[in-house]
C-alpha cells in the first residue's frame, strides 16, 4: 500500500511533559519508500519523536499529519484506526506472546475483523517474507533472539503498512543477528515500505540513505536537507560520521 503524498509531516511540532520539553520546533517530512535513521544520545528526543510519528502521542503544539490527516482533528477511535492501517512498529524487546509463532504474527490482525483462518494464511506469508517459513510450526520460546525479532517484523508488516517504525531493532541482538535484521529492513525498504529506524548505533546510521540527528529535542542534522546546527552543540566528529 503506497500513500499518494507524504506519510509524515511535522511542522513546528513540540511535545512537553510538564516543564520538560522533549521535542521542540521540529519540522520533518517522510515520504513513501524512504529509509531513514534517527540518531542521538539518551534524552535527545528520539523516543518522543517516534511516539509522535507513530500517533501514540499528540503534539503539545505545532502540526502533525500522517498520510494527510491532522492528528488534532482525529478522535481517539479514528486515530487508532489510522495507526492500525498505516503504521507498523518494531521495538528492541520483541513482545512476543508464548505459543505458536504463526499465532504470534496472526494476532496482529485480531482486532481488524479478519477471520482466524485468513489471519493465519497472511501470517504464514509474512513469515515467509522475513525468511522464517521453516519456523511456522515452532513456538516462540524455541527461537533465537534474531529469529524473534524477525517474527516481530513479520507481525509489524502483516497488514502491509506504508510506514514501519523501528525503535532500536538491533539493540538486544548480537552483531550477526543485528546484521540479518538490518538487511531485512533494507529489503522491506526496497519493496516500497518507508522505514524509520531509531538508533544510537552510528554504524547503522552511516549505512542508511537519510540520516537525522537529534540533540536536546531538536533536529541538528538532516542529510536530506543538509541542516547542521553547530550552535546547538552538535559534535562535528559525529556529523562527519553521519555524512
Question: What would you note in describing this structure?
Answer:
- The protein has 243 residues and is an alpha/beta fold.
- The chain has 8 helices and 11 strands.
- It has helices at 46-53, 76-86, 101-106, 116-129, 145-156, 175-190, 202-206, 236-242, and strands at residues 8-17, 20-30, 35-39, 61-66, 69-70, 87-90, 163-167, 194-198, 210-215, 218-222, 227-228.
- Strands 6-7-8-3-9-10-11 form a 7-stranded mixed beta sheet, with helices on both faces.
- Helix 4 (116-129) crosses helix 5 (145-156) and helix 5 (145-156) packs parallel to helix 6.
- It is globular.
- Keywords: ATP-binding, Nucleotide-binding, Transport.
- Residues 8-241 form the ABC transporter domain.
- GO terms for molecular function: ATP binding; ATP hydrolysis activity; transmembrane transporter activity.
Radius of gyration: 18 Å
Number of β-strand runs: 11
CATH level 3 topology: Rossmann fold
Beta-strand share of residues: 25-35%
Number of spatially distinct domains: 1
CATH class category name: Alpha Beta
Shape call:
globular
Low-confidence stretches: 230-237, 239-243
Number of helices: 8
Helix-strand pattern = EEEHEEHEHHHEHEHEEEH
Distance between the termini: 31 Å
Outline the biggest β-sheet. Answer: 7 strands, mixed
